[in-house]
Amino acid sequence: MRKLLSFLIIISITARFTPVFGQNIIPQFIRHMYLNKDTSKHSSFIIVPVLTTSPETGIEAGGAGLFSFYTDTVHLDTRVSSIFGYATATTKGQTRTSLNISYWTSENKYHFTAYAGYTHFPFDFYGIGNNTAKANIEHIDEKRYKLTFAAEKRMGSAFYIGVVGGDVNFKYKNNNPGGIFDTDPQIEDRTGGAFVYIGPSFNYDTRNNNTYTTKGMTVTAYFNAMQGIFGNNSYTGGFFNIEYAQFFALNKQLVLGVDVQEQSLTGGRSPFYLLPALGSDEMMRGYYNGRYRDRNFIAGQTELRYRINQRFGVVGFVGTGEVFHTMFSAAQLKPNYGGGARYFFDIEKGLSVRLDYGVGQKPAGEQRESGFYVGLGQAF
């Protein structure tokens, strides 16, 4: 694995193009890659390797292509638009394919995005709630078809208000029939379901740089009103997400970041495929994504980032979080801490390869939860 990572990094440096990493980072690549000013205003097309690792996937590898262009070559502040596609496979039998479009109009007055993708993602299931046991592990096969769109309008120097919508179809197969996935009454719509959704979005962003922030804040929020279709046409509900992040420059090399996120299902039903899950390469690093899931999720983290020089940096982080059905309990918060290294392969844009090791709780009778991650850019 180290040879593969080294080979990929060497290619990215010598060929002067950008590698793409990460389970959740790949969609962020579109948002973060070209947010700084670019005086050349040239369109470009690149094909790049994809390589990542996480507790859920093992090693994930594949390829991606990016076509970037400008809708306005006169105003220097206009952000770059892009069409981005990728396909990957993992050592745990998972595959992903998708096409992403990000379109900025002149002077960033409007921003349109679209996504179409298919994911086949077998995963480990432990149960519902904040205190599941490894002894209950079952292997579930998930297939997901997803089509989304979003449009937002700039309302000031830092505000964007918009609308998001889409169509999603989940299908599940239990590879351990008769287990808790089949018998637990908390698990609703265990065979999957399809739904359409639409709702408002809000973004407030004063960060000085979107790829390596040293000061400023961002608040993003959206609400999806959902209606089941096809065999799941009786489902009606909603999903709310809000995230706040702020950054403080302690000196020229040291930055403190704070990040808090909350997600909640609304309505009387709790389809399994909509339950918020704890653990990812961005928040609560060290926990297997989905080991803990329920109707509500809340987590926070702080990260201290030290820039050794233009090329290298190190970080340390600590956080906490939990999932819960109806009532939040401070006593149920789970710990999260760890550290990592950064290699800035594109100094001008502030883009870096991220290597993190996260540590979580030690459940009774089990090993301490932990995970190693490789990704592109900062965790938040």
Task: Give an overview of the whole structure.
By secondary structure, the protein is mostly beta strands. Helices cover 7% and strands 53% of the residues. The chain has helices at residues 2-14, 25-32, 180-183; strands at 44-54, 58-69, 81-90, 95-104, 110-120, 123-125, 138-154, 159-174, 192-205, 216-229, 236-249, 254-266, 277-278, 292-293, 296-307, 312-324, 334-346, 351-359, 370-376. The strands form two sheets. The protein has a 17-stranded antiparallel β-sheet that branches. A two-stranded antiparallel sheet has the order 13-14. The longest helix has 13 residues, at 2-14. Residues 1-38 have low confidence and may be disordered.
Beginning-to-end CA distance, first to last residue = 25 Å
Strand residues, percent: over 45%
Can you write the helix and strand succession as a string?
HHEEEEEEEEHEEEEEEEEEEE
Derived structural class: mainly beta
Principal-axes geometry comes out as: globular
> What is the CA-atom radius of gyration, in angstroms?
21 Å
Give the number of DSSP strands: 19
The residue-averaged pLDDT reads 87
Determine the number of helices (DSSP H or I, runs of at least 4 residues).
3
Helix proportion of residues, in percent?
A: under 10%
Q: Sheet bearing the most strands, described? A: 17 strands, antiparallel
Sequence stretches where pLDDT stays below 50 over 5 or more residues: 1-38
